[in-house]
Amino acid sequence: MPIVRVALDIPLATLFDYTVAEGVQVAIGQRVIVPFGKRQLVGVVVMECVATSDVSAERIKPVTQVLRDSAPLSAELLTLLNFCSDYYRYPIGQTVLSALPTRLRSDKPIIAKPILSYRLSSSGAALDLENFPKRKVVQRRILAKLVEQSCNLAQLKALSATVGAQLKALVAEGWVESFDGVSDIKSSVRPERNAVKSKGEPVEANSCPSTSSGRTDCVASKHVFDNAHTLTSEQQLAVDAVTQASGYGCFLLHGITGSGKTEVYVHLMHHVLQRGGQVLLLVPEINLTPQLENYFRSRFPDVNLMSLHSGLSEGERLHNWQQAQSGAAQIVLGTRLSVFAELPKLALIVVDEEHDSSFKQQDGLRYSARDVAIFRAHQCGVPIVLGSATPSLESYYNAQSGRYKILALTGRATATAQLPTVRCINTNQTVMQQGISENLLREIEKRIANQEQSLLFINRRGYAPVLMCGGCGWLSDCKHCAGKMVLHLNDKRLRCHHCGYQIRQPSACPSCGSADMHPVGSGTQRVESVLQERFPNARILRVDRDSTRNKRAWQTMREQIHANEVDILVGTQMLAKGHDFPALTLVGVLNPDSALYSSDFRAAEKLFAQLMQVAGRAGRADKPGEVMIQTAFPEHPLFRALQTHDFAGFAASQLAERKMAGFPPFTYQVMLRAEGKVESDVYAYLNRAHAAAKALQMDVEILGVVPAALARRANHLRAQLLVQANTRRAMQNFLRAWQPHLEGFNQAKLRCSLDIDPLEF
Ligand code: ADP
Ligand code: ZN
Ligand code: ZN
User: Fold this and answer.
1) Residue ranges of the alpha helices (H) in 36-106?
2) CB of 232 closer than 6 A to ligand 1?
3) What is the pTM of this model?
4) Per the structure, how many domains does the chain have?
């Protein structure tokens, strides 16, 4: 009887053997249901017909059922997952299963629910939009969109936060009708349409006889392409470098904000789509996806674009994943997990904002989607483009040493858009109003008078990071963590941002009874209230995790900002990323200094990237922007580099420091973390791991066992052990030898994890 080896979601570094009854066909990559103990589990067949199994034949149980309602995983994807399991030292079964959409991990039959599409009914088509009530803004938008093409809900959602309800209203009026239109979407684009937006000439893509990548067969496909801009010469050079390369190549597209990186992606995509290839575009895990999705749809109006991110329902996710798997999705736009999407015709990978730490998964399979994407591009023999205004020092170093090819965009794409001026305000020499300097307040005032927007950037939500007693010095420590509880004044609570523990704000000191309680430091809420006091007529919008908890809130806010219904924005890093706010001309940065003395060697790199990014928000349209940074260290090289927009200089000094200190990218790291309720258990485990590592006498540097940056969280003590090697190979050899020892140690009461190439310290 044939035996198959099955990957299961079980925390053991092994596959499981099952027999297959005579006459039953089962392919590699197929999903199966198998008995496991008393349970029935869904697994994936990864190997077939093993001649000798480790388990004696009569003890092997048979496969319960072969699931044929989804196509088998490709050998290529299984190879990729195998590599990840091996590289990240994570069980193969869990690796394979975690790459699948939730629906495919369950044994419930996949009933492909039709994904409804919407189009104008005949009465809807007869409507005169000019005379449609102006105040029904969203309905107008929906109708205007549907005049162009039929859309499904996901596509319409990008128009506004309230699309669902408004669409229902339109259907009830009989102006819009739904139909089961997944496969129909493309053909339902009006064939006679030829004007795609006013700004650009639509281009009918020509079929092209030559293949560009090593892989894509030349299945020429025609699509409408909104070629909005003539490329600048730098953009053209970048596009040519990638399209002329054959097979694998890693390109670092280093372009300042506003230099037109997206335009380069669009042209590369166009090139690949013409040849029938699929494009994978990876973006950070942020609320950017609907916006970007809309943007790419507008540039490729009849191309099948599918997004894959956590905002989708399970059904949508499965649907989009299967569209990718069948090759029907021509562009897949997704966050980190989509690096594992099946893409049979993959011809190009783009990783936008490649430096962003959200590409790294922080639990389970702790992979870096950027690094896996590079492996995948190599595996498939296709080019990969990493784009950023502030590349990670790892990528930048690889580009400098010639492993990646650098493509530089040094100027802003639109001639009128200038880089913002950056100034430091020395907080030791200026009048401060509860954390905001008087100079900055005056600048904000000017912006309000000119009907321009200001943004105040502060990386802390809540009112104040800590509450203090003036009588005895009591501080609002979290009783479960090593951190402080943050004061949230709008609901009068102290809240721990690490474990979620919260209490009512005490009116008197819990320790001495004094009523002399002060908030110390500033968070977004405090900044908001200071501004409110100073500018009572200004429209202030706070954007942080608290104010955007509601799923659609952030999108509504973005609409407000665009409609210029906001004068001052106060926000955390949520505001820093990739948003284009044309009326924004002033950015104030309130408390950047803590990163300068952080124990994390990447803190400066992260701060620089973040500040470059916020600075990039200012003056994107035709108005010049200004950035003001409040700091006690105005002479710090980081701020100096920022003022001169000198990434190269900053990177060079950071790399020199890293080289001296023996940090990445000059070394490769692995972090063993452990946490548990009993301190001695945690340290006993890590000390044994330390001893085992030493005993191996391999070519690695083993650092000491130390407490984690947050030494206690939710009553768990946390510690870690760092190991460094000079090459990836040395690290991998060491890990192969070390990991079996770790599994042998008692860790019943501990949570332990190995983090390869860790980003968080
Ligand atoms: P980045 O992604 O590098 O921050 P974008 O791609 O968003 O930059 O481009 C910034 C702005 O410049 C956008 O409004 C874009 O439409 C415009 N743009 C890009 N390329 C060109 C070009 N070749 N000619 C004119 N405008 C361009
Ligand atoms: Zn007190
Ligand atoms: Zn806590």
Assistant:
1) 75-87, 92-98, 102-105
2) yes
3) 0.86
4) 5
